[in-house]
Amino acid sequence: MTIHTSTLQYRLARPADSEALIELILAMAWESEQIKLNPKTLQAGVMAVFNHPQRGTYWVIEQESQLIGCTLITEEWSDWNNAPYWWIQSLYIQPPFRGQGMFEGLLAVIEQAAKSQGAPELRLYVAQNNQRAIRVYERTGFEADHYRCMTRALT
Question: If you write DSSP's letter for every residue of 67-128 in order, what string do you get?
Fold first, then answer.
């Protein structure tokens, strides 16, 4: 699915977009959590999505042949709903393009695709100290839920 809006295009990413995706994701990790990802590991991770589509789907925002935003959508099966939840991950829009409705446009495209696949809701996680992102998500209809994310390292 591709949607054009003036010079903007919201579309599924292609393998040829991988280098631009890597740059955007590196910037997102640093800006949101001050984490320097290993570019080679990230490259392998991005290519794993393209080589094994069941792992996820990248969506991009393109303006005049330049990727200015991206996100990764992964699915989590819900036996409670007999349907997949769609998780928004690795979301990033370059700073000069923020505040112009691009996230809302990307969200609309993703929501339409999710509904067509029977997903009952979109989910995402956000760093607790990322107040700007939290405000954007709340403004676009996301709500905090009653779950708490917990992790256990295996290494």
Answer: EEEEEEEEEEEETTTTEEEEEEEEEEE-GGGTTSSHHHHHHHHHHHHHHHTT---EEE---T
In contact, 84 and 76? CB cutoff 8 Å: yes
DSSP designation for 12: E
Task: Quick: pLDDT tens for 9-18.
Answer: 999 999 999 9
Structure tokens at 147: 């779950």
User: Is the pTM value of this prediction over 0.85?
Assistant: yes
Structure token pair of residue 91: 């979301």
Which of 15, 21, 23 is closest to 53 using CA atoms?
15
Structure tokens at 47: 């290519």
- Who has greater pLDDT, 119 or 5? 119
What angle, 0 to 180 degrees and rounded to 10, lies between the N-to-C axes of helices 39-51 and 18-33? Answer: 130
